[in-house]
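In this section we walk through a basic example: taking a raw amino acid sequence and producing a predicted 3D structure, encoded as discrete structure tokens. The instruction is simple. Fold the sequence below.
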Amino acid sequence: MACRIRPDGGHPSDIAFLTAAPHPAGSSFRNTISLDQLVAERIGTLTRFPSLTLAVNGGRSLSWSRAGVAIPPEGQASRVFNRLFLQGSPTEVAAQVHELDTGRSILDVVGEQAKDLRKDVGARDRTRLDQYFSGVRDLVHRLQESKGWANKPKPKVKVGAPTDPASPAQYVAKVRAMYDLARLAFETDSTRAVTLMLNSVGTPVVQIPGESITDSYHNLSHHGMAEEKLKQLRVIDEGHMKLLADLFNGMKGAKEGGETLLDRTMVLYGSNLGDANAHATTNLPTLFAGGGFKHGRHLAFDRSRNYPLPNLFVSVLQRLGIEAASFGPSTGTMRGLEVV
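The resulting token sequence is shown next.
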């Protein structure tokens, strides 16, 4: 399917891919809540982790709070594995609970100070303080939820902790490790929402066995129709699709109650640029799989008047049992997307 977020933004529009907030490159831009964080708000209490925010080769995030604050992504697969599956000793668990209580106490004090300060500032600063205070409240709520899970045993898996690739150039290994962790997180019902930012700007020359790649993915995407750059870009993009196919096959192989994990999981894969060579944020190539929908089709929309991607977000929310009539500039649910 070819959709749009907003027809502006260039590279910075990546942070608005799941929020659809307008003008992400503007000096006064303020982001809004991302799709995954809305899911975390509504059903995140059902699992140990309301959401997981991951990244490969960069600190940019797809996940944003209701206050428009970025959720810092985790880029080390080994640390994600430890969070998900490593059970601490009773002493370590007690220390963790103490840290959570201490953190909540500090945030309570900070919140009260923000309230007092609000009385003495102008309207513009009050708005900023309200955003800040909203973020503090979110953190307090998350700490309380984490405390409730601290003494519950973590799930056991049959694989060991991954080894973190030493170089950003080992991009393929990094992506594969994060895909495996996302699959395990869903398979063990540790979370209901995962985002993964694949940062092309932060990725140097990619190492692909048997292939000769001579430039960074970002530079190759600005190919100017040069045949050699297009050839190398095609190799990397085919590598992306092979990694994604492996993820889907792994999810198909995990079965529960007569259904596969892919049947019970919706996967959205896409880019914030429809034409990276021109920095265009229109006609976005978007792949959507799983979730019990009818697939194996190409939904083609008007290339001049793009279909809003947030319509898909509304369909996702409703499929999760979350009441939602709109998301950002949506105009309804995704046309042509049907349940099996």
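Looking at the output, two observations stand out. The chain has a mean pLDDT of 87. Residues 2-87+160-319 form one domain. In the next section we compare this with other chains.
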